[in-house]
Please model this.
Amino acid sequence: MMRSTLTVWLLCASGLLASACADTPATQDASPRMVDGVPLARVLTRLAPNANREMLTLAANALSCADPDAERLAVIDYSLPSNEPRLWVFDLRRKQLLFEELVSHGRGSGDALATHFSNTPESHQSSLGLFRTMNTYYGSNGYSLRLEGLEPGVNHLAFERAIVMHGADYVSESFIEQTGRLGRSLGCPAVRQEVTYPLIDSLKEEQYLFAYYPDPEWLTSSAYLSCDRDQGRQLAMQSYDKR
Model:
């Protein structure tokens, strides 16, 4: 019975069994965040109908666990190829979709499709899980946003690895036309140069980014995908206190 339940949970999380997901742990939250009386997951789904519903539910669960009062949330679906929009930025207070954009993955994660993820320095792979945004700065890639990984063993070395959000000329429709995919970063979620400033400014300073891929180990072990709020907020504050 446990193995059967887990199989359904993973299928739901990867979007392969949407019809059976309504009553599974992947789509339930004991105390979901409400936005004007509507569950956050439902709000996200309405604002981004092109996004995977189960992924948005997981993102809503993770945010509700870590910080129910957050104002902005970005979600990346690394299960999609890089030549498709797979980054969504939500204004939760105004219930608005601010951006639906292309975003790169690390060169160590794959070519058009990302299939490998890591928390290891110099792997040049993207990381999964929940991140909290930090300050902006100007670096070798121009205007950039520092990210703090909140999940031990999954993305907690993001700051040490200099995993940041920045603009890049290899994130463009013209690059896709030439190669069939976006260019790849050293692990950073790079965006189009044309939206770098407004997108980063919408997420800077204590907002959240959720990076998804149907990785079974992460889905079953992430503390933010199945926890009570007290535990989640305690985990998030522990990470904050270590800065």
